[in-house]
Design a protein that fits this description.
Number of helices: 5
Shape: rod-shaped
Helix content: over 70%
Number of domains: 2
Distance between the termini: 120 Å
Order of helices and strands: HHHHH
Number of strands: 0
Structural class: mainly alpha
Length: 151
Amino acid sequence: MESLSAQLYAFGIILLAGLSVGFLVDFYRVLRGILRPGLVSTAILDLMFWALLTPVLVSYLLLANWGQLRGYVVIAIILGFAFYRLTMSRAVVALLVWLIDLVGKLLTFIASLAWSIVTLPLVVGQELGLGIRSIRLRRRFIFSPGLRWRK
């Protein structure tokens, strides 16, 4: 029989596991909302989600009470998940959407800056008359003979 303090410690750790499950579920919801996967992709993503979530829960169980699955463990996971959903879920989803939007804008800025750096010499060359078309025309006038023969 475990002491009350050990059971309370395990209960607290498992409550944290419920909070972690809630966060991972919200992260997955935001990810699915952005990717909008099809039928097969959804099944694959669900399998990947549960393949990630299972070791997380097992590690919490091992940390809390050496992997013993008891009644209070299930209750603690449900209570932790419910607490997270009722108190923090909306704020976390809004924060995740904002962060993903920020990262998207940052990547767009970096890509446009890189594109500007790559195309700047071409634009300057075009303005100076160094484009491919103008070089061909200039080459024709330079190498064409200046005299016209009469018959």
